[in-house]
TrEMBL record:
<dbReference type="InterPro" id="IPR005119">
    <property type="entry name" value="LysR_subst-bd"/>
</dbReference>
<dbReference type="InterPro" id="IPR036390">
    <property type="entry name" value="WH_DNA-bd_sf"/>
</dbReference>
<dbReference type="InterPro" id="IPR050950">
    <property type="entry name" value="HTH-type_LysR_regulators"/>
</dbReference>
<keyword id="KW-0238">DNA-binding</keyword>
<dbReference type="Pfam" id="PF00126">
    <property type="entry name" value="HTH_1"/>
</dbReference>
<protein>
    <submittedName>
        <fullName>LysR family transcriptional regulator</fullName>
    </submittedName>
</protein>
<dbReference type="InterPro" id="IPR036388">
    <property type="entry name" value="WH-like_DNA-bd_sf"/>
</dbReference>
<comment type="similarity">
    <text>Belongs to the LysR transcriptional regulatory family.</text>
</comment>
<dbReference type="GO" id="GO:0005829">
    <property type="term" value="C:cytosol"/>
</dbReference>
<feature type="domain" description="HTH lysR-type">
    <location>
        <begin position="3"/>
        <end position="60"/>
    </location>
</feature>
<keyword id="KW-0805">Transcription regulation</keyword>
<dbReference type="InterPro" id="IPR000847">
    <property type="entry name" value="LysR_HTH_N"/>
</dbReference>
<dbReference type="GO" id="GO:0003677">
    <property type="term" value="F:DNA binding"/>
</dbReference>
<dbReference type="GO" id="GO:0003700">
    <property type="term" value="F:DNA-binding transcription factor activity"/>
</dbReference>
<dbReference type="Pfam" id="PF03466">
    <property type="entry name" value="LysR_substrate"/>
</dbReference>
<keyword id="KW-0804">Transcription</keyword>
Length: 303
């Protein structure tokens, strides 16, 4: 049978009203047009679907079967439309978000949670990368957008500052540099370090900076969490580097001293970065708007 959705709606309207005239009104069709379509449906079915009476119509057994399946089809169509609209409005699907360690650890959880709670059918895959790797992924089309440090060049991408979070030098309370107001990274390259675990994006970035200075960090122990890093530093195991938010969070419990790093790469702000707002998926646009990124393209373009 070559029935379309309009045919099914008309047939159900007639069946529910018990009248072709009333059904035509419900379906917004002229009586003549409705009658012609009903005859075409019956011809296509090869059997009578309606029994005509002087004051209305009733369903034949075949007509009752068609009405049953028509209701199921229309219900499924409504469900499909709803699901597709959810995808279109960013409330369903899978969002892949790339971010550096600081964003994943400190910034995103509190900002992402309320947004995600309003979208129970949306999944988010978080990918931890260094800021440089996030920029490369966006340029290569492997990522729509990401959260990066503004200390990293992002030529050709649009960036919008979402948080301030400079890196700090973490020291034991009795360390000879503990009274300093600021330090240069070169001042501490000879120190024993408490580092984050291998593969951690921030730690990778720090070790790359040391390599650029011609040094290799003397790592005594690697910790999986910032809390563990702060605990070790507080006990004098070594020095470490962490975002200011982390230092403030664990300073009292661990006894660490946080001293500002004067290097430009440490004076970082977290930025949402993307290539073109118009090409972003609905979920990504929704998330960036939630993070206060300017949809009117007011974001900084780094060229």
């Amino acid at each position: 049978m070559r029935l379309d959705i309009a045919d099914l709606r008309l047939f159900l309207a007639v069946a529910d009203a018990g009248s072709i005239t009333a059904g035509a009104v419900e379906a917004n069709l002229a009586l003549g047009s409705a009658s012609e379509r009903l005859r075409a449906i019956e011809t296509d079915a090869g059997t009578a679907l309606l029994t005509r009476h002087p004051r209305g119509v009733s369903l034949t057994e075949a007509g009752a079967a068609l009405a049953h399946h028509a209701r199921l089809i229309l219900q499924q169509q409504a469900q499909l439309r709803g699901e597709l609209q959810a995808f279109a409005h960013g409330a369903r699907g899978t969002l892949h978000l790339y971010a550096n360690t600081a964003a994943l650890t400190n910034y995103l959880p509190a900002r992402l949670a309320p947004w995600l709670a309003e979208r129970p059918r949306l999944r988010v895959e978080l990918h931890e990368r260094t800021s440089t790797e996030v920029v490369r992924a966006i340029r290569a089309g492997q990522a729509e957008a990401g959260i990066i440090s503004d200390a990293v060049p992002a030529d050709g991408l649009r960036r919008h500052v979402v948080a301030e979070d400079p890196l700090m030098m973490l020291l034991p309370a009795g360390h000879r540099f503990a009274a300093r107001r600021s330090l240069d990274f070169s001042d501490v390259l000879g120190e024993t370090f408490v580092a984050l675990a291998d593969g951690n994006a921030l730690q990778t970035y720090i070790e790359e900076l040391a390599a650029e200075a011609g040094r290799t960090l003397d790592v005594r122990i690697r910790m999986k969490t910032f809390e563990g890093l702060c605990t070790m530093v507080g006990h004098g195991i070594g020095v470490g580097i962490a975002p200011r938010t982390i230092a403030r969070q664990h300073r009292r419990a661990t006894g660490i001293v946080a001293v500002a790093l004067g290097n430009a790469w440490a004076q970082r702000r977290l930025c949402a970065a993307f290539a073109d707002w118009k090409t972003l998926s609905p979920p990504m646009r929704s998330l960036l708007l939630h993070l206060d990124v300017d949809a009117g393209m007011g974001a900084e373009k780094n060229v």
